[in-house]
Amino acid sequence: MLHDKSLLADMLKLLEKHGFSFTFAHARSAPFLIGEPDPSPFPNASDGKFLLHLYAWQRG
Q: pTM for this one?
């Protein structure tokens, strides 16, 4: 399991730096992912593992 929580923020900053726009289309809990369960900060999520659909594009 990936434990560096800053990786998503770093990736988004890199996208912005290179002129990309982005949006999140869908997010959901994914307790079936490989690895030990992670604690979840959300009461309705059984696990701290999530899938996130991110779309990024450059104009021009």
A: 0.67
